[in-house]
């Protein structure tokens, strides 16, 4: 009995090893391909526990695990030329999924994702250059951007299906000017803004001159109107003054004459520094010769022989 125990344990270990080598698990994020002597024997797309021939009998059974998730591949700093001849830098990415594991393993050596993405990189690069080459830079910033991405996805579809891959989406992340184009664009924009500023300044000067001319004309018109009104009022005032004088003269000619003489005295003699050379018997001083306020008769001239 004692001699049989080691043999039993060895047999049990061999059985457990055979069972372990014949079981593999596929989770929900994976798909498995069973390869025997370089030939694909089975593909498992559903999660679960699966069996294969143990290595003791098959000698070459191998399980290739392939991702069953959507994968992302980025392509950065691609230099493309637009229809206007200028160059721009583009960043893009695509979302893909391995939907035909059997084809993918058969076409891509060893099911290597890096090799598959290298082929996608070449095709994506060429497609971006073609799509941008048919359009100007503004297209990538307008509603045409979605159409451009659809065209790129359509270009990649055939090659991707040959690899067992489905392209789910293509996106352009960035479209930017290269350094030399940025400098040229900045210089052009600066020149345009300077020209626009000069135009606005010229229009402002023209408008200023027009408004100043209008203001000057209005000043001249206002001054002319004011001068005309002042002349009219002055004439009306003089006429009213003459009317009053005429009325006063008609009522009392003697008093009016006396008043006018007093006003003449005040105007002539009231100013400092005034010198007058007149005869005392002048008619101008006739009211000085009478205390009663009435003019005295002028002295008779000497008789002549």
UniProtKB/TrEMBL annotation:
<comment type="function">
    <text>HflC and HflK could regulate a protease.</text>
</comment>
<keyword id="KW-0378">Hydrolase</keyword>
<keyword id="KW-0812">Transmembrane</keyword>
<keyword id="KW-0645">Protease</keyword>
<protein>
    <recommendedName>
        <fullName>Protein HflC</fullName>
    </recommendedName>
</protein>
<dbReference type="InterPro" id="IPR001107">
    <property type="entry name" value="Band_7"/>
</dbReference>
<dbReference type="GO" id="GO:0008233">
    <property type="term" value="F:peptidase activity"/>
</dbReference>
<dbReference type="Pfam" id="PF01145">
    <property type="entry name" value="Band_7"/>
</dbReference>
<comment type="similarity">
    <text>Belongs to the band 7/mec-2 family. HflC subfamily.</text>
</comment>
<dbReference type="InterPro" id="IPR010200">
    <property type="entry name" value="HflC"/>
</dbReference>
<dbReference type="InterPro" id="IPR036013">
    <property type="entry name" value="Band_7/SPFH_dom_sf"/>
</dbReference>
<keyword id="KW-0472">Membrane</keyword>
<keyword id="KW-1133">Transmembrane helix</keyword>
<dbReference type="GO" id="GO:0016020">
    <property type="term" value="C:membrane"/>
</dbReference>
<feature type="domain" description="Band 7">
    <location>
        <begin position="21"/>
        <end position="189"/>
    </location>
</feature>
<dbReference type="GO" id="GO:0006508">
    <property type="term" value="P:proteolysis"/>
</dbReference>
